[in-house]
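Thread amino acids onto this structure.
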């Protein structure tokens, strides 16, 4: 009987607990974020109070008491975007779902639970990211240079590089258009190539989401473009020759005709 004692005691005095399985959570653009939170359950939820609150400014993200959602004091930032699994509450699950996550959602979230067993809290740190879309390439050619440009959207700001054939960093221009309403950065990166032959690689790293994109661009200026002009010139020259030849023939025939008619006229006069 004695050996059982510590276990029984441990069970009796088991403190009320609130546990978050993921203390660091990455919310991905376009997917709902589920902030997990568990507590020592009490099947009777009549005394249950669940409050999700931002750590930085204590604004209310979601709250539940009197056995229902209480959203009068909810921060407008979270309106219609939060959801508790109400049927799970009696089992000790106070996980919160947030939809349409955006950069402003980044930060600390306190899961605060009180029931007949006690009261406690736990913190979830939320980060937000969006995978960069497939970069769109455009090539602008003018008389002095070739400008390569990639455009893409994602979050947070990426690390961008243009690498030469030898793998060296090339100087490039970067334009970041501030956050769109969708919570994405619009990125434009361009590289000005001077030489005729272009062999470079555009690289993009989204460190938060371990996204690595490498997009090689190879542009070859073949002599073919120059020799393509040749047949056209030859044809034009040949046609000019033919026209000239025909003109000469016509002229010759005309002169002969003029001569013969003038002879005829002379006879007539005689
Ligand atoms: C809580 O319940 C939801 C919905 O069933 C589930 O997805 C989630 O994993 C649960 N969380 C915990 C911490 O048990
Ligand atoms: C471009 O550079 C890569 C990397 O050095 C090389 O493997 C590839 O053959 C080059 N392509 C051309 C067309 O020169
Ligand atoms: C290129 O620059 C990045 C920083 O933007 C650096 O991390 C990387 O090591 C550089 N690569 C080379 C080959 O110099």
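Threaded sequence (270 positions):
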């Amino acid at each position: 009987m004695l050996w059982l004692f510590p276990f029984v005691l441990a069970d009796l005095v088991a403190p009320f607990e609130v546990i978050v399985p993921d203390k660091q959570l990455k919310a991905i653009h376009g997917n709902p974020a589920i902030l997990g939170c568990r507590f020592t359950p009490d099947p009777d939820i009549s005394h249950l109070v669940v409050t999700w609150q931002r750590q930085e400014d204590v604004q209310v993200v979601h709250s539940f008491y009197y056995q229902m959602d209480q959203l009068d004091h909810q921060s407008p930032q979270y309106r219609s975007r939060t959801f508790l699994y109400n049927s799970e509450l009696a089992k000790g699950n106070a996980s919160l779902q947030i939809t349409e996550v955006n950069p402003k959602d980044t930060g600390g979230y306190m899961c605060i639970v009180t029931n007949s067993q006690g009261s406690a809290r736990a913190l979830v740190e939320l980060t937000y990211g969006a995978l960069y879309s497939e970069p769109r390439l455009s090539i602008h050619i003018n008389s002095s240079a070739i400008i390569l440009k990639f455009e893409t959207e994602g979050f947070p700001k990426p690390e961008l590089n243009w690498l030469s054939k030898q793998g060296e960093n090339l100087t490039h221009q970067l334009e970041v258009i501030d956050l769109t309403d969708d919570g994405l950065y619009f990125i434009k990166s361009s590289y000005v190539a001077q030489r005729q032959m272009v062999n470079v690689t555009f690289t993009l790293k989204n460190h938060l989401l371990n996204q690595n994109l490498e997009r090689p661009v190879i542009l070859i200026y073949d002599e073919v473009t120059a020799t393509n002009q040749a047949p056209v010139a030859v044809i034009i020259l040949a046609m000019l020759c033919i026209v000239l030849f025909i003109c000469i023939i016509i002229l010759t025939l005309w002169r002969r005709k003029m001569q013969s008619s003038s002879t005829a006229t002379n006879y007539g006069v005689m």
